[in-house]
Predict the 3D structure of the following.
Amino acid sequence: MPAHSQIHLDRLSAQLRTKRGKRGLREVAEEIGDISASTLSRIEQGNVPDVATFMRICNWLGVDSSEFVPDAATQKNKNASREKEVNVPHVIEAHLRADRVLPPATIDALSEMIRVAYKAASEGKLGAVKK
């Protein structure tokens, strides 16, 4: 596995916590396969996983492993090709969960508000902003 400086551990752990939601570590570890709940907990806390575990988690998250590698060229190309596939509310929630200051209940509330507002906007249910 790359050294800490070569992988966005905060992004990995935030996306892992976001997708796991309120489900238990054991349930998710079993769903991912060949990973223990304690290993999953350590990764959520920012510890570096081994390569096989990292790849299993990326597969479970449905993202390419390069998502967590801070290579500007790779990120730029990936972002350009996947621009339409980005789930914006999910990305925002992952960033909120990476913030160690906000309480989980606040993150849940903000995430829900963002999902509702984003859905309404994408369905054209929000009027134009007047200045």
Notes: The chain is about 60% helix and 0% strand. Helices lie at 9-20, 25-32, 37-44, 51-61, 72-82, 88-98, 104-122.
